[in-house]
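Example record used in the benchmark description.
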Amino acid sequence: MEGTRPILVEIQALVTPSSFNYPKRMATGIDQNRVSLLMAVLEKRMGMLLQTQDAYIKVAGGVKLDEPAIDLAVLVSIVSSFRDASAGGMDCFIGEVGLTGEVRRVSRIEQRVIEAAKLGFERVFIPSSNIGGWDFPEGIQVVGVETVKEALNIVFS
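Model output (structure tokens):
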């Protein structure tokens, strides 16, 4: 993949109370099992009662993704819909999420942040472990986070 530009996508979520005994989980453009896993992390690590909620996740533009660096963006999208609260339209989220709720280091972080700055994002959330050893581009605030809880507290404060 040398020489290719990282792709930034919009992730949309709709979380709504289920009228069935077994809530529906649908995902377009992202693995449905990954969405279920991320929702389990929110339930266990954030205490969110999502087991009674239907969840519909869509990657805008018809793109299919298998990139773990979108985990944090998916979680923020789900929480935004569940809480019916805006996550800030000029924020970008990059990071893989582990089962304990940690935000893990991702590859090519410099290129991803540069691309986010070019697209006009004002703030980018990245794993704390990716900070250091490189200069941040002008015009964008880089926020390092270690856990999902930390990221969500900043975003929805």
